[in-house]
């Protein structure tokens, strides 16, 4: 199975494999995950499935979770996305001020 999702100019490929095939082809699968940001669902008995993703992708997910972890950050991000001036790049100080005024 292969699913391709477009995510802001990045193509995210999701593949599925069995644990047995992963063991046989680990080097190639690991290279694809690392080089192309593929995500691999590894199916296991009793639905004890796992997901293999690159460190870069994992860090990106962690950062997103962190940024969305507080109400103030969520609201600030939403305002930034919906603002007609969203092309403006904020300095770290401007970002801190924006978040602090909404706490």
Automatic annotation (TrEMBL):
Pfam entry (one): PhdYeFM_antitox
Free-text function comment from the UniProt entry: Antitoxin component of a type II toxin-antitoxin (TA) system.
Taxonomy of the source species: Bacteria, Bacillati, Bacillota, Bacilli, Lactobacillales
PANTHER family tied to this protein: ANTITOXIN YAFN-RELATED, ANTITOXIN YEFM
Family note: Belongs to the phD/YefM antitoxin family.
Protein name: Antitoxin
Family matches, as SUPFAM superfamilies: YefM-like
Organism: Lactobacillus psittaci DSM 15354
């Amino acid at each position: 199975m292969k699913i391709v999702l477009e995510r802001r100019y990045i193509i995210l490929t999701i593949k599925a494999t069995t644990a047995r095939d992963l063991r046989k082809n680990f080097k190639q699968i690991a290279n694809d995950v690392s080089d192309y940001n593929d995500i691999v669902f590894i199916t296991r008995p009793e639905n004890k499935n796992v997901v293999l993703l690159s460190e870069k992708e994992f860090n990106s997910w962690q950062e997103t979770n962190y940024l969305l972890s507080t109400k103030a950050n969520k609201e600030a991000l939403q305002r930034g996305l919906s603002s007609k001036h969203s092309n403006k790049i904020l300095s770290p100080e401007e970002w801190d001020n924006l978040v602090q005024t909404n706490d």
